[in-house]
Amino acid sequence: MAHIDYFFSTLSPFTYLSGKSVDEIAARTGASVTYRPMDIMALFARTGGLPPKDRHPARQAYRLQDMARRAKLMGLPLNLKPAHWPTNSAPSSYAIIAAQAAGGGDLGTLVHAFGRAIWAEDRDIAEDGVVKACLAEAGFDASLADSGLLQGAEAYGGNLEEAVRRDVFGAPFFAVDTGQNFWGQDRLADLELHLAGKL
Predict the structure, then answer these.
(1) Residue 136: CB partners within 8 Å, gap ≥ 6?
(2) pTM exceeds 0.90, yes or no
(3) Owning domain of residue 31
(4) Given a cut of 80, is residue 148 above it in pLDDT?
(5) Cα distances (angstroms) measured from residue 94 to each of 129, 150, 166
């Protein structure tokens, strides 16, 4: 059985636009998944990338066009200029790490809830109330937002180091234990074909 290390940022519009696809693909192919939220801005600095605001205007314009097309294809609402972006991704990431350790809910729903909060609902995922609401929506104990902060911080930093070690440079990024890497929401179909032994 293959295993996917799912590296992502709760800030990433393309993580949001992935929906719950990684879980659905894993279920269809028998793969397992570990969720690894990371600091995408720190990753850019470590791997030669630039934050969106520092990219050439042509790249910025294309990114917005592509986001709008992807949202339409996925049938998801999307605000191209959300009120609370970028924001501090650590609280939401710590909550995901705590939820994964605790179990009892749906991680895919949780990750998507954070993305939707930013990109469709103009909520700030750095706020405690928003984090707790997303946890509850996904079937987790909302008090996870208040516990395991040290463990969350350590795992969050560790995920960044692991991402750099495994040649991750963006989000979402799917690193399979076969040695194959897939970057971007638009490579989910390729990921599934690979896991099915067809690519």
Answers:
(1) 142
(2) yes
(3) 3-195
(4) no
(5) 14, 9, 21
